[in-house]
Amino acid sequence: MTTRIILIALTSAAVVAGAAGCSKSSGPTPAPTPTSSINPMPTDPNAPVNHFHVIQPQNQIPGLGYAAYWFGPGQSVNVVKNGLLLNFQVQDNPGSPRARSVDELKADDIKLADQIVPRVG
Length: 121
Description:
121 residues, alpha+beta
């Protein structure tokens, strides 16, 4: 039941984030697509996440009120909370003439996580 409630909250927040426009793009370009997923933490703390060792001190994003890690190759933010692994990613529109920088994509991922992480518990 808890997982279902969390997934509903994640979906609702992702839709709200998409409707609010997490992107700084302007003009008729469609808004980026926010995605999120929730998974149990691997039982082995050394296990890779999505085939990469993301949960490492050098990947931690400082200054947030939760444990968040930047996954550069996948351009996503991974959050560890209450034994769960949450993944956030705001994908750019592939055909956009205004491609955004990795820093802008990372900032959008963090905005999305900021909307959802406080609700997970």
